[in-house]
Amino acid sequence: MAHAKALPANIGVGLAPVLVLVVLIAPVALGLALTLLPAFGYLPVLGGERLTLTYFAQLFATPGLAHSVAVSLMAGLLTPLLALSLVLLFLAGTAGTRLERWMRRLVAPLLAIPHAAAAFGLAFLIAPSGLFMRLISPELNGLSSPPDVLIVNDYWGLTMSAGLIIKEIPFLLLMALAALPQIEPEKRVAIARSLGYRPCRAWLMTVVPALYPLIRLPVYAVIAFASATVDVSLILGPNLPYTLSVMVLQWFNDPDLNYRFVAAAGALLQLGVTICALLLWRLIESLGAWLGRRWINRGERRSGEALLRVSGQLGVGLAVLVSVGGVLALLINSFAGFWRFPDNLPGAWTTQTWSRALGEIAQPLANTLLIALVSTAIAIVMVLAVLESEQRAGRRLSPSMLLLYLPLLVPQIAFLFGLIVATEFLRWAPDIKLVIFAHLIFMLPYTFLTLAEAYRRLDPRWSQLAATLGASPWRIFWRVRLPLLLAPCLTAAAVAIAVSVSQYLATQLIGAGRVPSLTTEAVALASGGSRGIIAVWALLQALIPMLGFALALFLPRLLWRNRRGMRGLN
Amino acid sequence: MKVHRLQLENIHISLEGKQLLALNAEISGGEVLTVMGPSGVGKSSLLAYLAGFLAPVFEASGLTRLDGEVINELPAEQRNVGLLFQDALLFPHLSVGGNLRFALPATVQDKEARIEQALASIGLEGFAERDPETLSGGQRSRVALQRLLLSEPKAVLLDEPFSRLDSHLRREVREFVFAGLKAAGLPAIMVTHDAEDADAAGGRVIQL
């Protein structure tokens, strides 16, 4: 009643949530529908005019399919289980320490490394002829030639899962750190400690039950991603047989167009596998809750404290070490000339690989930058519009906004496939505009996840004060809210850029291979590229997100160097 | 100088059907009406309602007149009702002068001179470029009051304005705030826990 009525000026902003939902849900729904039909044989363009189960029969007759499904499912459960446990143990063991503050700073650059680059880094580190084996050979194991074992591309996809875990740890850490302030962990731990519980145990018992519901969605996103990843699987995953998602991609690219139907059936199976992984995770959740309650009810206060503390620090520390070591391995490989096996470092250094790659880089680099910058600008504007409309309405968005996260929970390959069918039907030529749109679908949820908390937590008194001083809603937005939230906005933009740069499938499929980006080129080198070349492309791919995060960190410091009050807000 | 007048007619605020407060009052320029009471009785809701920020979960009825004009349906920025919080809340991203400039109506000519004049009146000549964070607590309170006055309000709401100040500062800030409001001929409503605030205000006191 007394609340400011929606003025005409607010109508544009008020429509923002609806618009964002349409942009997100329409393509996902359309894509899924157009995957469903060809899976049952209906795709008139290719002569499929009646419903049939033939292609499912063909799909299930594929040799090794059961194993592919098993590996996808395993990666989809192993990744969240280990990444989440380690993140929680780490936070519990380091709450309020210098190590935690260090980690807060490390999270952004770790997150900036694209999946593909991190995967290559891991491969160069732990392959039989990788940096690690060179460091311990021949001193520790007496080897003078690389051991004949399958470490990368192993049959059960364990290396692939490891690569995913290393990448998802910083993601879950960031999400947990962003959610923590709302539940006041210090107070919870202080009370538990005053009742005699050791600190790490106190954190696990009193903070985790409140924290988990807040980061559940990111965890589900990890499950969906890990169970259906394509780029990490192409680099680290098994190839006899491939994981399900890669098989689908190969059928899709098969020159025999009839395989398109099998690909559609496979994409649907992939959706089923991801849903299955999510349902199994629900079971794991219940089991975890039951065990946790028993653990808390036992009332044990002290035992095992050191073990809890150390396991989290070791696990997360190892993940960080491997990430950094991977980048180091990429750097060395990119400058390596002749490099005999057990030698720790190359015998000769060269800049030839770089100069050769730099000659070919112009087009993919320009594409990557253009796509990332345009889609990030659109994503930031849309997310700000949604959050601003929420502020002006004076209440939280309706629960339907949870659909915003849909693209994170549906395997990319399951709906990108149908989206291509749609663009072909509409006779839209694959071009950079379509790729930007496809990227946007995946960037919006992450951008929203990153910015929403900061936007909602901003002290409402700032905008109230500005209004009583006579400032209109738009003036408040431009002159008060946006400057106060500059740092989180820039971080969200950096996340958006990182998400865009790391998109493999959306660029490759929607661009029909005609919009080469740093990522598509790097992943294409996975089979058969020379190590030096791969390293150069992977580093270039990681460079852009790094620059984004660096800017997001330093720009506010530069701008507010004479404003001490802005430091606490950053 | 124009003397303003604030009238509250049959104000009722309730939450989920339970009435929080009912109020009738008329406050003339230079007068401070003090509203006291324990927390949770709806003191803050009253200020939020008058300023135009009451959350949609509350139900409110009644008329608020400012110089005879009903302002209930106006958005907050068009009500000409100023607000002082517990904290000075100087915008941290703006300079001291920038904070004052933010409050000046767009139509004001020669803003720089007005800002300098306002700073001079509180003994802060040449402070326009300073970072608000470098001011002392007392200086911040003075700038906050000047910022409020520069926005040319017709009435002022005070939300426990002195409760965060040290006891020695509290008396000083109280004095210049009440003097400033009186000099500007502004009717004010103050919400407080502190009986000394009410004494210093010197106006009527309503216990909720």
- Assembly context of the chains: heterodimer
What structural class do you assign from the helix and strand content of chain B?
alpha/beta
Name the CATH architecture of chain A: Orthogonal Bundle
Strands side by side in the biggest sheet of chain B: 6-7-8-3-9
CATH level 4 superfamily of chain B: P-loop containing nucleotide triphosphate hydrolases
The radius of gyration computed from the alpha-carbon positions of chain B, rounded to a whole number of angstroms, is 17 Å
CATH architecture descriptor of chain B: 3-Layer(aba) Sandwich
**Proportion in β-strands of chain B:** 25-35%
What's the rounded overall pLDDT mean of chain A?
A: 90
- CATH first level of chain A: Mainly Alpha
Overall average pLDDT of chain B: 92
Q: What would your notes on this structure say?
A:
Chain A has a single domain, classed as MetI-like fold. Helices cover 73% and strands 0% of the residues of chain A. Chain A has helices at 8-39, 54-60, 65-94, 98-112, 115-126, 131-136, 158-179, 185-194, 199-206, 208-228, 231-236, 244-253, 259-298, 305-335, 352-360, 362-393, 406-409, 412-425, 432-457, 460-468, 473-484, 486-502, 505-510, 518-524, 531-559. Chain A is globular, with a radius of gyration of 25 Å. Chain A starts with 7 loop residues before the first helix and ends in an 11-residue tail after the last helix. Chain B has one domain (5-93, 151-207): P-loop containing nucleotide triphosphate hydrolases (Rossmann fold, 3-Layer(aba) Sandwich), CATH 3.40.50. A 5-stranded parallel sheet of chain B has the order 6-7-8-3-9, sandwiched between helices. In chain B, a hairpin with a 2-residue loop joins strand 4 (58-66) and strand 5. The longest helix of chain B has 17 residues, at 167-183. Chain B is globular, with a radius of gyration of 17 Å. Chain B starts with a strand and ends with a strand. The A-B interface holds A 1-5, 7, 394-395, 460-462, 464-473, 479-480, 483-484, 486, 560, 562-566, 569 and B 49, 51-56, 59-61, 72-73, 75-83, 85, 87, 89-93, 102-103, 105, 131-134, 147-148, 151-153, 157.
